[in-house]
Design brief:
single chain; mainly alpha; 3 helices; elongated
């Protein structure tokens, strides 16, 4: 429930910043590039050492 409230709060802040024209037009594209190029790889590197290799992990990786 707390996560949903946080998502709604961020959505409200984003909509208000867009309506007040306080952010550049391409802010969404820049934030998406940050998430794809920095945040997701950092999260993967953070959690990769804790990963246990078993059939639950290997089977989806081998499916393609």
């Amino acid at each position: 429930m707390d996560a949903m409230l946080l998502i709604l709060a961020y959505l409200a802040v984003g909509l208000s910043l867009k309506r007040l024209h306080l952010m550049p037009v391409n802010t969404g594209q820049v934030l998406n590039q940050y998430v794809i190029n920095v945040a997701v790889p950092a999260m993967i590197l953070l959690h990769l050492p804790k990963l246990e290799l078993n059939s639950e992990v290997l089977l989806p990786a081998l499916m393609p």
